[in-house]
Amino acid sequence: MIHGAVPPREVLLEFIADNPDRASKREIAKAFGLKGDARVELKDLLRAMEDDGLLQKSRKSLARPGALPPVTVLDITTRDKDGELIGRPAEWDEELGVAPAVAIRQSSADRAKGKAPVGGLGDRVLAKIFPSKDRAGPAYTARIIKVIDKHRNALLGVYREMPGTSGGRLMPIERRGEELQIDGADLGDAKDGDLVEVEVLRSGRFGLTRARVLSVIGSVASEKAISMIAIHAHGIPYIFPQSVIAEAEDAKPASMSYREDWRDLPLITIDPADAKDHDDAVYAELDPSPDNPGGVIVTVAIADVSWYVRTKSALDREAVKRGNSVYFPDRVVPMLPERISNDLCSLREGVDRPALAARMIFSKEGRKAGHTFHRIMMKSAAKLSYQQAQAAIDGKPDDKTGPLLETILKPLWHAYEILKRGRDRRQPLELDMPERKIILKEDGTVDRVHVPDRLDAHKLIEEMMIQANVAAAETLEKKRQPLVYRVHDAPTLSKQEALREFLGTIGLSLAKGNLRSNSFNGILAKALDTPHQTMVNEMVLRSQSQAIYSPENIGHFGLNLLKYAHFTSPIRRYADLIVHRALVGSLGLGEGGITPEEEAALEDIAAEISTFERRAMAAERDTINRLIAHHLAGRIGDEFAGQVSGVTKAGLFIALPQFGADGFIPVSTLGRDYYIYDEAHQALSGEKTGTGYRLGDSVEVRLVEAIPLAGALRFEMLSEGRPMPVAVRSFHKSTRRGAMKKPGTRPNRPRR
């Protein structure tokens, strides 16, 4: 190949696989000696390879789909036959298959000299990843950069007695875990079937690792144990170190230093009825300026967490390790101790509290005319729930909202009407995905699954928070201050095409070309009030890229915004705390500003908190799946109305809308016909009958198995398959002909 010429695709793929640490566009161009027009050609080729699904973007680097990024968070879970440590990525998309094993390489010479961090079984580490040259072993090797959590040798599992012995085994709660041996002397009060937390004692090269029971959480059959399973399975830190608790308890209420006195401004909080911390307050009024007739001034005040949580403090180190608060139906794992989150930083009614406030001016058309930021002392005039505030506006005020109606609530709703004009003009992505909330009884068992009403009160707060987030990003950009953006890339061409093919099966079409968020809104509007409404919303959501944190701004596709940064929830998100510090520092608002060391580390911080956000989402989702499986375990044999939410070669995923849960029907149980998987049309089609099932079909199913510990449901299909469209049958026939033409091959029949 000529040096200086753009290499072909296969050469680029080989280079990226062999050099994951040199897989950025700049490094690739440098490696192949590309300059000028050749660099532009390379950029276009790499983008085309992304769109074709051959590459995926990870921060600034490119990687093969399913490949690990050059720097990855690993959990060290086991040892190989030679006693060497084996890790797996802490977060992994199950749709890509089994998470790859990674061999941990630790030089004894480096360890002896203290040059390299030492990892052990149960540790969570940040590691440099290398492709393995040993085809007989794991696909990757790794060198530990730092040990993130040394306390992960406290593991969770189910204790099972072993007949004829005084002890037993710890059965792992996750598929990739290993069994541990527990001797009778280390058993404590654990009984057969208990969910227990254990400490790893020692592990040799041979035999099972031994462990000691630290605590008995309770019977694994109890819902109260289910969120703890997710906490341990995903490695979420949930116990605050004593140094963090002590620092929080020693914190004193903020003084008036560096602050404007806004305690007379009647800011109010509007939150869920069961909220314990209140980090945002709002107020709106008409703009008295004759230059802005009909305009409004909207004030959003946010708890000043940066005053209490300073860079490199014990509180800060723990907060960045957690990344965000995690919310389960029965508990919250907070980012900050209660002394900070529920007390000193919570904007309590009638109590002086420090805050950062955005004062934003809008024209009557909803266009922002300007904004300023202020470090203030405020006093919340009222704590309201969404339902309270909405009821007052709807003509049913209570004793608390009655006096606030004319002076505070109606001006807020008037301002929201103005902000809606701007939102309607902007046309962000308008998905209709009802949020299901699990309501628990006092004993922790599931009472019901509830879909709360989506009120204008919710939308009001949401839009005002969005505008404050935009103002924060714009201010910091103007000051040329490094920050962490909330970015959301446009859907890849491959995801657009997959959505386009699905929509074609139900008579809808998606335009080609440079799509914007409102392109999807047209599809959602056409699906409204049709049997396909829920599934179309789900498929549009699946087609979207994942929003992440990044110091590089690419805009927010879903919100249709050029600049966006999270500013409004610093009590529960570390990204917002970074933005607060950046505002304090760049605007000269006093102590607690961002430091040069933090600015230099923003790329790593953004990558870590993006990972921790995905971790929290996965833990919350797993807990809901386990709770629903537990709730339905007593209803084996019952029939349910469901919808086909996923189609694979192995079978059908079935969603139960009333529970917000999914289950599976193996293809081997669908009937006597031979079913062929049509990926393009997302269908399973019967070879003989020409009938089958497609994504979005409404079906009746019977529950035949529920496994609470795994959060798994298995169904039996009761509905007859429906005739497949001509396009599906044609695909079916061509697939069979293609299979027959290949000598020595046969169709990939499912296991029976």
UniProtKB/TrEMBL annotation:
EC number(s) from the headed UniProt entry: 3.1.13.1
Biased amino acid composition, Basic residues: 730-752
Main location: cytoplasm
Transmembrane annotation, as ranges: none
Enzyme class: hydrolase
Ranges of residues in domain S1 motif: 637-705
CDD domains from the UniProt entry: S1_RNase_R (cd04471)
Reaction catalysis annotation: Exonucleolytic cleavage in the 3'- to 5'-direction to yield nucleoside 5'-phosphates
Annotated region (Disordered), positions in chain: 727-752
Compartments where found: Cytoplasm
Cross-referenced InterPro entries: CSD2 (IPR040476), NA-bd_OB-fold (IPR012340), RNase_II/R (IPR001900), RNase_II/R_CS (IPR022966), RNase_II/RNase_R (IPR004476), RNase_R (IPR011805), RNR_Ribonuclease (IPR050180), S1_domain (IPR003029)
Keyword Cell wall biogenesis/degradation: no
Keyword Hydrolase part of the UniProt annotation: yes
Keywords on record: Cytoplasm, Exonuclease, Hydrolase, Nuclease, RNA-binding
Function of the molecule: 3'-5' exoribonuclease that releases 5'-nucleoside monophosphates and is involved in maturation of structured RNAs.
Family: Belongs to the RNR ribonuclease family. RNase R subfamily.
Protein name listed in UniProt: Ribonuclease R
Annotated source species: Ciceribacter sichuanensis
